């Protein structure tokens, strides 16, 4: 019988190994979104602690790094949410009304989308864009932000989102619509207009 | 008389958003495409949703950026390891 044990399996769930293998990556990931290095360190620490607590639920359905990154993304949004001067007071219904106000009563644009001249895929523009994106996400009601993160960042399917958030498919599409509308408006106001 | 949703930008934005989360029936796709040809604001809107998605989904690559050599400071590394050992 072959006694050889593949090492990575036993290491995969060892938190200290996580720090060595993914610490730098997560730190840079956080620094690309948050300017303050000490905050970035703290968020990385919180990420590892949260991962330690949730280790049992990790079914190696994804790579450890992907899983840790997903936790970190939530931590970054939480950080901006807690430190945002204008706390998100709007509930989900109010966002529906805010969307209505973008259109006239025949459904035509009243506040028209502007032209985005910049290309946020360029690396030097991306960093600033990402920070604004996270700040805008933090202004969304938590449930909408979560739906958005699961769909657009973690690329979950409708089915998976419904399971995670305990909503119907139709519900999830409405939530994502509201999140996208709000986020698009926030980005246009804070990023694209400042560049025009 | 109620106009068809195809002429209603608000309905079109809802359906455009939905099209990013599920496959639309073929007739919806045709009507949406026709609307986008006629309406530059909805076309912009659609492009912007795609830009947002592209950025969100590509960001994974960023930390690998070759000119980014920053590493987690040693002290932080040790502190984190210690905090992981404490049963809290």
Structure description:
The complex is a heterodimer of chains A (196) and B (88). Chain A has helices at 7-12, 15-31, 37-53, 64-83, 92-100, 123-139, 142-153, 158-165, 169-195. With 196 residues, chain A is mainly α. Chain A has two domains: 9-83, RNA polymerase sigma factor, region 2, helix turn helix motif (Rna Polymerase Sigma Factor, Chain: A); 92-195, Winged helix-like DNA-binding domain superfamily/Winged helix DNA-binding domain (Arc Repressor Mutant, subunit A, Orthogonal Bundle). In chain A, helix 5 crosses helix 9 (169-195). The longest helix of chain A has 27 residues, at 169-195. Chain A is globular, with a radius of gyration of 19 Å. The termini of chain A are far apart. With 88 residues, chain B is mainly alpha-helical. In chain B, 62% of the residues lie in helices and 0% in strands. Chain B is built from four helices and no strands. Chain B is elongated, with a radius of gyration of 23 Å. The interface between A and B is large, with 58 and 47 residues.
Task: Write a brief structural summary.
The complex is a heterodimer of chains A (196) and B (88). Chain A is mainly alpha-helical. Chain A is built from nine helices and no strands.
Largest sheet of chain A: none
Based on helices, strands and strand pairing, what is the structural class of chain A? mainly alpha
* Residue-averaged pLDDT of chain B: 86
Mean pLDDT of chain A: 84
What attributes characterize this protein structure?
heterodimer, A: 196 residues, mainly alpha, Rna Polymerase Sigma Factor, Chain: A, 2 domains, disordered N terminus, B: 4 helices
Could you give the topology of this structure?
The complex is a heterodimer of chains A (196) and B (88).
Chain A: H1 7-12, H2 15-31, H3 37-53, H4 64-83, H5 92-100, H6 123-139, H7 142-153, H8 158-165, H9 169-195
Helix pairs in contact in A: 2-3, 2-4, 3-4, 4-6, 5-9, 6-9, 7-9, 8-9
Chain B: H1 9-19, H2 26-38, H3 40-58, H4 74-85
